[in-house]
Amino acid sequence: MKVLENAIEIDRLTTDQEKIDNVTRSITDHGNYLRKRYPILQYQNTLGASVMVFSLAGMIVTGGLYINGSIPAWGCILINALLTSFIHEIEHDLIHRLYFRKQPLAHNAMMFFCWLARPGMPSPWLRRNLHFHHHKESGTDSDVEAWITTSGSPWGLLRLLKLLDGFVFGFLNAVFAPGWRQKVRLLGKIIRLNTPFGLLYWGCWYVFLGYHLYAWLAPIMGTEAYTSAATLKLMNIVDSAVVILIAPNMIRQFCLFFISSNMHYYGDVAPRNAIQQTQVMNPWWLWPFQLFCFNFGSTHSIHHFVVRDPFYLRQMTAPYAHKVMAQAGVRFNDFGTYHRANRYCMDHSKTRSRG
């Protein structure tokens, strides 16, 4: 009986692999067709660098306009959150060496500027190995990148907190780790991953929260909030950093992690089975989140089949790719993932598919 079950499982996986190969080939061919139809797509390095320069320049301009009082804080935050979503896509492509592959100076310079624009994240060089492993073992217990974005955790206040504050997420994991050696090891890893920019980023954020909480609570408690001239000068710098850089990245990261952690399956995924690794999430009500992570829920599944295409080409191939993926059995808008803690769960009656 066991031999028969194993034979059925092997046959199923073989069928899935054939479907995966067909999806990969079809999307690749469609990408080649688009490259021929639109010759500008041949200039991949130039396009990537142009998006990078545009996004960084945009952040600088909006920051200057905010400091000069020409635009409100909320305007600066929303514009820069959108621009940092472009930079995240550029960094993700760079991790896969899609720009300046044979020109290390230009490639690493772009990686560095991506890190500067998103200082709350570990360096892209450290993340590269984690991300490559994510592609190989997506959704399995060793997929650290998926786990970091809270995939596999039951939904509740703790998961929401982890999505809102990545540093607190890491700190809580260390605090609740079994044994002192494990706690110390995880704390050391948090410090290493956040050195140097992340420590400045999160430190600035907590100073901002602490100061404004104190200023808000003091009158309520019947005391006067005392602030020296030096403190006010420091807080002007901190407030500007939060509006121009930190708050935009907090919004971008929350939207990205919220979408990513729910479109990736985790915990009961067959190894290296791209059909089971992700779903396509593209309902209209997710657009407020999709806006700040460059339509990630709709297009990231394509990347699990075809790695070589840059982010803007995935947007162009999406209508065609979705049809091919749906035919192969990739799920669309499986909202049951919210109460299944991202388990794949073989009950297909709980999913909805769209071609």
TrEMBL record:
The chain crosses the membrane at residues 45-65, 160-178, 199-217, 237-259. Pfam families: FA_desaturase. Residues 71-334 form the Fatty acid desaturase domain. Coiled coil: none annotated. The keyword Lipid metabolism does not apply. GO terms for biological process: lipid metabolic process. InterPro entries: FA_desaturase_dom. Keywords: Membrane, Transmembrane, Transmembrane helix. It comes from the Bacteria. This is Fatty acid desaturase. The lineage of its organism: Bacteria, Pseudomonadati, Pseudomonadota, Gammaproteobacteria, Pseudomonadales.
